[in-house]
Design a protein that fits this description.
Length: 132
């Protein structure tokens, strides 16, 4: 049940992303026409820089392309599934390192207990060897 809900939420988020991109594109088209009308018909900004609307439209188009890449390219390759796989890899790596450290500590502790003559373990060994 939890996986179904997660898939549903993921699909819902993807639909929202695509909807925002389409809205952004329509807004870009309307805004571009508005810039052209401002510059050519109303003569706003002609004294400052002739055909400034071209640069504004190209800059906005650049942001539309980035938005498109984010929705259709990057998210496809680095979406929820990619995040889950990366998380699993990192957790596995971390667990392996912890296991190695625990093994190393255990072997070092054994080596130290063997070297110390007055440890409880060595006393037990001495007692058991003397009683036999």
């Amino acid at each position: 049940m939890d996986d179904k809900y997660e898939e549903y939420e993921n699909a819902r988020n993807r639909i929202k992303q695509k909807k925002r991109l389409y809205f952004h594109f329509v807004f870009f088209l309307i805004g571009s026409v508005f810039f052209i009308v401002l510059n050519k018909v109303l003569k706003i900004g002609e004294t400052l820089f002739e055909n400034w609307f071209v640069w504004a439209i190209f800059l906005w188009l650049f942001f539309i392309i980035l938005h498109f890449i984010n929705v259709f390219v990057t998210n496809r390759f680095m979406g929820k599934e990619w995040e889950r796989k990366q998380l699993d890899k990192l957790v596995l790596k971390q667990e392996q390192k912890i296991a190695q450290l625990e093994k190393k500590i255990a072997s070092e502790m054994q080596d130290k207990t063997k070297d110390l003559p007055n440890t409880p373990e060595s006393k037990k060994k001495n007692i058991s060897t003397t009683t036999q």
